[in-house]
Write a structure and sequence with these properties.
Keywords: Membrane, Transmembrane, Transmembrane helix. InterPro entries: Sporulation_prot_YunB. Pfam families: Spore_YunB. This is Sporulation protein YunB. With about 240 residues, the chain is α+β, with helices and mostly antiparallel strands. The protein is built from 3 helices and 8 strands. It has helices at about 20-75, 100-120, 240, and strands at about 80-85, 90-95, 140, 155-180, 185-200, 205-220, 225-230, 230-235. The strands form 2 sheets. The chain has a 4-stranded mixed sheet. α1 packs antiparallel against α2. The chain starts with 17 loop residues before the first helix and ends with a helix.
């Protein structure tokens, strides 16, 4: 008597092997981890980039201020920025900007700012005397960006770096203000603007940092003089001066 075998018998298999189950579990785990990291990254990026902008602005401002002060402290005569002319009675009649000296201070200060920004970008912050330690430009504990006070200093530090883009722009501005009765304050202000690229993990953003740094002030006594600034003739309002 013949023995009949089922045609499907050859497709019968034993239980799934442990290695196969482990492989499938590992793939599912990786997918879930990647998806979780993507969700977390999307949720914290706005807060992190905002924090990076704020800290970069603070650092750039400190660097620009120090660069300007260091250049002036090297021996630049800020009074030479203004040409003062007197009348036959010895009274100050006009004040004009000294173009040669203005160009010199702008050129040299711009070089200082660019040099200092490059030092900070490389992590050489201690040498500038602004920060106590060297290292990456900035970092923030992961817990701080959660806005939870209990987690403020918990978690790995997230690096926040920046790099200058283009050239540093500098200019000289003047401000004429009345000081008491028949006294005028002529203030020379250096306007500095830098463009920086803030870099956090998986994202970058370009920002501009502007700062006005006073570098010289001259008090003129007597009648209000005519002031020839870079924007033309500036004569303070006599009504304000008389107050």
């Amino acid at each position: 008597m013949g023995i009949f075998r089922s045609k499907n018998s050859r497709f019968r298999r034993g239980p799934i092997s442990f290695r196969y189950i482990l492989l499938i579990s590992f793939i599912i785990f990786i997918i879930m981890v990647v998806q979780g990291l993507w969700i977390v990254n999307k949720s914290i990026q706005p807060t992190l980039i905002k924090y990076g902008e704020t800290e970069t602005h603070k650092m750039a401002t400190a660097v620009m201020t120090k660069a300007v002060k260091d250049r002036i402290n090297e021996g630049f005569d800020v009074d030479s920025l203004m040409k003062v002319q007197t009348d036959r009675n010895g009274k100050v009649s006009t004040i004009d900007l000294n173009t040669k000296q203005v160009n010199e201070i702008l050129t040299s200060t711009t070089a200082y700012i660019e040099k200092y920004l490059q030092q900070v970008e490389k992590g050489d912050t201690k040498a500038l005397g602004i920060f106590e330690e060297n290292g990456v430009s900035m970092s923030v504990p992961f817990g701080r960006i959660t806005d939870n006070a209990l987690l403020g200093n918990i978690g790995p530090d997230i690096p926040i770096n920046f790099t200058p883009i283009g050239h540093v722009n500098t200019d000289i501005k003047q401000l004429v203000e009345p000081q008491g009765i028949n006294n005028t304050a002529i203030k020379i202000i250096m306007e500095v603007e830098v463009t920086l690229q803030v870099m956090i993990p998986l994202r970058t953003k370009e920002i501009k940092v502007k700062q006005n740094i006073p570098i010289a002030t001259r008090i003129v006594q007597g009648e209000v003089p005519t002031y020839y600034g870079s924007g033309g003739v500036v004569v303070p309002d006599k009504k304000k001066t008389d107050n």
